[in-house]
């Protein structure tokens, strides 16, 4: 009986994290209430505290889950085999797509949660989780770049900043031609950068 209860609790925790991760990315952490998350998973508000101590704890767990899923998705986006000579361009093409821009709730948490995390205290657990996700995104980009480690690291940070910034600004300018132009401009910038570095 205890094993079954533990599995049910784990399954419910996971469902709450998934729903919160989607809602937080879609609406922003402050705009989402605990009752809204619990309604999303078909549970009562009162049941929340059997799973998490606070909304802040849920935000950390949801960010962790979203970062992990985003990293897995990035790996699927990139064909690192011999059939694909330009894996970073593949990644940029998908990350900077209208589909990724428009699917905020399922998209990269680094672009979706940036403004929420910017308001967090420096020592917050959510900020630490988010920064870890940034480091993982930068490392994934760095692994696809040529050159020595120091240059690759610097280039990866610049490319990450350009990609994340483009998605944020593209979402902010939705409905205007600037939205698509922003994504295309950064794709072109990355392609030009790779061509000039000989990849």
From TrEMBL:
Residues 10-70 form the HTH tetR-type domain. It comes from the Bacteria. Residues 33-52 bind DNA. The keyword Transferase does not apply. Keywords: DNA-binding, Transcription, Transcription regulation. Coiled coil: none annotated. The keyword Cell wall biogenesis/degradation does not apply. Pfam families: TetR_N. SUPFAM superfamilies: Homeodomain-like, Tetracyclin repressor-like, C-terminal domain. GO terms for molecular function: DNA binding. InterPro entries: Homeodomain-like_sf, HTH_TetR, Tet_transcr_reg_TetR-rel_C_sf. This is TetR/AcrR family transcriptional regulator.
């Amino acid at each position: 009986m205890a094993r079954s209860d533990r599995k049910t609790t784990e399954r419910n925790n996971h469902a709450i994290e998934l729903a919160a991760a989607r809602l937080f990315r879609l609406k922003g952490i402050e705009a989402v209430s605990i009752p809204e998350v619990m309604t999303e998973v078909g549970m009562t508000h009162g049941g929340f505290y059997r799973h998490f101590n606070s909304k802040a704890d849920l935000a950390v767990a949801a960010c962790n889950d979203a970062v992990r899923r985003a990293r897995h998705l990035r790996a699927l986006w990139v064909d690192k085999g011999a059939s694909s000579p330009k894996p970073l361009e593949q990644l940029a093409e998908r990350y900077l797509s209208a589909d990724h821009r428009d699917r905020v709730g399922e998209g990269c948490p680094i672009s979706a949660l940036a403004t929420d995390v910017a308001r967090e205290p420096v020592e917050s657990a959510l900020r630490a989780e988010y920064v870890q996700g940034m480091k993982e995104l930068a490392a994934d980009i760095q692994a696809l770049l040529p050159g020595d480690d120091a240059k690759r690291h610097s280039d990866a940070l610049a490319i990450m900043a350009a990609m994340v910034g483009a998605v944020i600004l593209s979402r902010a300018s939705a409905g205007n031609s600037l939205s698509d132009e922003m994504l295309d401009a950064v794709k072109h910038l990355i392609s030009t950068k790779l061509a000039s570095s000989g990849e």
